[in-house]
Amino acid sequence: MMPAMLQYVIDALSLGSLYALTALGIGLLFGVLRVINFAHGDFISVGAYALIVPSANALAVLYVGALPWPLVLLLTAMSVIMVAILSELMVFRPLRGTTPATLMIGSFALSFIIQHLLLMIYGSRPKAVNLWPELTTQVNLLGLRVQKLQLATVGATAMLLGALTLLLRTTRTGVELRAAAEDYQMARMLGIRANTVIAGALALSGLLAATASLLYTAQSGILSYQMGVPLMMFAFISTVVGGLGNLLGAVVGAFVVAAIEVILQATLSDQLRPFREAFVFVLVIAILLWRPYGILEAHSSRERV
Amino acid sequence: MVDTQAGALRAHNVTVRFQGITAINEVSLSLEPGDIRGLIGPNGAGKTTLVNVLSGLETPSCGHVTLDGRSLQGRPPHQFRRRGIARTFQSGRLFGELTVAENVIVPAVNLGFTSRQAAAHARELLAWVNLADKTELIAGILAGTDNRRLGIARALAANPRFILLDEPAAGMSEIECEEITRLITAIPQTFAAGVLLIDHNMEVVMRACERIHVLDSGRMIAEGAPAEVRSNQAVISAYLGIVVTGQRRRVNVDAA
């Protein structure tokens, strides 16, 4: 029983890590733009497609993905950040000052545009890629055989969360980002330059999306032009469960949602398992009935990231 | 309108209407560097609306605000702040998830200080408001007067020329009131800034201010030294029972 339990914990941590990276990217941008960027999942797809040679062939040839891993991370991050900055210049900035609903629809439009650009360039067929095959081997951990990739996912996420915390706490832009995330109007009134802070948030959110796309691609081994959508969906739910507008909340929410998924996967009978996601949503609704503003309410004074 | 009063912050015949309701009506007020002026009035008199206009958060329906004789009409609030008009909020509006020091550093770095200067500046200001030992705490856990002190320190960041304090003593005990009043009255000499102190508690304002403006139902009904205001018939009725106030309002409506 013990090893099985431990396996579930590792599964939940590694799935939660992916959700947390995505949820934090969404949360960072929500903090300064007050909009849920529905194109965030597509930023993840862009990162994944940046790994291969552009072509409509079914066989994907790794290009960036075949380089040493620090370069892979750097180039993927640059591609995603570039798309994020372009999105800011072409969609979010022109729409600034409009209603949140307009911004949200703008982000939906952006999502579709990115998906269809990927479709045009790479074709609609899912592509198999073999990114970092050495990570699919297993190691022995406390008498349990664990995939290296799961450990890498948890480790990379922990490191990024640590680095992000340090950055938000100690740098000028970090402090401004936190101030803007908490009370944007007040931050503006005190002279915080909106464009700089928003560009900073987008770049960070792009870096998180790039990391998520690498880990996700290594895990699934398949590229498809809508691959980011389910990740976006669960990460979005995570930010709501954790407390929209609270970055620590986004991380907590991510691990809670992942834990629910793993527990349901393990406990539901074979007949019910196909409906796992429906059960996840029932539990999410229950959590929101219990705490309508999320587990960690935003603007709380109790926690910070 | 030409304003010869250089160095002053002025509201000229300012009217603010919200969907047909007039919050303030043809109100004028002038604040000079070194001044410590009071603005009193019953709840709902329009005090905060006037402060919102003076700090650029509200654009008047009629009239305008000038600084050094130049109109600030249509400028966003951060340009008011950049030009030296700072304020506090009744609700605090502090960054509860930032540290006490960071709350002061944020405006300082954005108003021209380097990070290092801003940190030193924040330490000085926080020492002045007696928060020297709490600079590294999360602002959200501050209680009572510490909150107001931090609000004042944040408003004083980057040496503003005018500071508008919206009910800094609200909900305070007698002793806390006295402490905060002592701090406020020291602002003009210490920082060479003009102070506008808003409160509905007459006593606090009477003690601190040389001149007092009285708002009631959106109109400026009196202006003068504390003793004059205290004995002013209109002010007394504004602060006393409904019957007198009701009659006076009816007279206003008839006149209009």
Description of the structure:
The complex is a heterodimer of chains A (305) and B (256). Chain A contains 11 helices and 4 strands, in the order H-H-H-H-E-E-E-H-H-H-H-E-H-H-H. Chain A is mainly α and 305 residues long. Chain A has a two-stranded antiparallel ribbon. Chain A has a two-stranded antiparallel sheet with strand order 2-3. In chain A, helix 1 packs antiparallel against helix 10 (247-267) and helix 5 packs across helix 6. The radius of gyration of chain A is 19 Å and the shape is globular. The model of chain A is unreliable at 300-305 (pLDDT under 50). Chain B has a domain at 9-57 and 73-84 and 160-255: P-loop containing nucleotide triphosphate hydrolases (Rossmann fold, 3-Layer(aba) Sandwich). Chain B has 11 helices and 10 strands. Chain B has helices spanning 47-54, 77-82, 100-110, 115-128, 144-156, 174-185, 187-191, 202-208, 226-231, 233-239, 242-255, and strands at 9-18, 21-31, 36-40, 62-67, 70-71, 85-87, 162-166, 194-199, 211-216, 219-224. Residues 241-256 of chain B have low confidence and may be disordered. Chains A and B meet through helix 6 and helix 7 of A and helix 2 and helix 3 of B.
Summarize the largest interface: chains and residue counts.
A-B, 21 and 25 residues
Q: What fraction of residues of chain B sit in β-strands?
A: 15-25%
Low-confidence stretches of chain B: 241-256
Low-confidence stretches of chain A: 300-305
Task: Characterize the quaternary organization of these chains.
Answer: heterodimer
Order of helices and strands of chain A: HHHHEEEHHHHEHHH
How does the major sheet of chain B shape up? 6 strands, mixed
Mean pLDDT of chain A: 85
Secondary structure class of chain B reads alpha/beta
Task: Give average pLDDT of chain B, whole number.
Answer: 86
What fraction, in percent, of the residue positions of chain A are helical?
Answer: 55-70%
Describe the strand arrangement of the main beta sheet of chain A, using strand numbers: 1-4
SSE succession of chain B: EEEHEEHEHHHEHHEHEEHHH
Structurally, the number of domains of chain A stands at 1
Main beta sheet of chain A: 2 strands, antiparallel
The name CATH uses for the topology of the domain at 9-57 and 73-84 and 160-255 in chain B is Rossmann fold
Report Rg of chain B.
Answer: 18 Å
